[in-house]
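Collaborator request, handled under Task 6.
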Amino acid sequence: MNASLYYNYWAKDIRDIYVFNLRTGMDEVEAFSNLFAKFVEFAETDSEGHLFWLVLADTQWKYGRLDPFVKEKAIEIIETGIDDIYWQSVSPENLDIRQKNINEIYIKLKTTNPEPVKLSKFNPYICPWKDGDVFAYHLTSEQSKQYGLFNKYILFRKIKNTSYGMVDQIPMITIFNWYGDFPPNNATMVEKTRVIPLFSICRIKHYSKVITNRRKEKIPKEKITYIGNVQSTIYPLTKVVDGEIEIQSLAWSDFEQYFFMLFEHFLKCGYTFQLSEHKILREDKEW
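Structure tokens returned to the collaborator:
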């Protein structure tokens, strides 16, 4: 078990959210108040609450913003051995390493706090595409050659933005059962085109995927062509539960790999490739 101060997700979240608050323009008081409101229940627990104050004190010291109250709380926790008792119960074999790490923090807290670190302002990414925007994606991978789709185009539609991380808004998309040698001139043709399932859980098929790359420069613009905007999508199943609500994610760099992984899955499940009339899959099978 990792014996560092930041050994679990609670500790990492406390550190990251505090720094994030500072980067959004909050002052030290606002950053602390916002953080404490999120972690008040955790901070007041008997078992792990002391971790909140240790992590916060260490983080504030690193960024030159150590609050006297937080410093006092953390030093009291270390001097009374609360963390030693806790660590003895969760990972006694690593107690010596933990004590060494906490002692280093204790020595640091006793020294003069460094000057405040200047932090760059955090600018959240918000996907600029409109809900309903349809794009053609140019297939060029080696896998596309195996399926007769090299240099062809497929179509996807942005359903909506969804939250990623703390404030970013990234696109959720769905893919149509269509391919072509060229991007279509407009998006009206997709209003009657079904979309393909992108994964299933417990036999409930979901038809959307979240694209996680946040920054505009990571969108493969050379592969994407804007077609138009449509406000509705045809789902093959009428009983799909939350067909557009999907939290699994996919990076642009993995887009084609995932797309053709779906093909292999479709074949195993009895789907049939059509590759005619601009359809990728035959639509005589219930999806």
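The cover message to the collaborator said: "Residues 34 and 203 are 41 Å apart (CA to CA). The two ends are 45 Å apart (CA to CA). Please let us know whether this matches your experimental observations."
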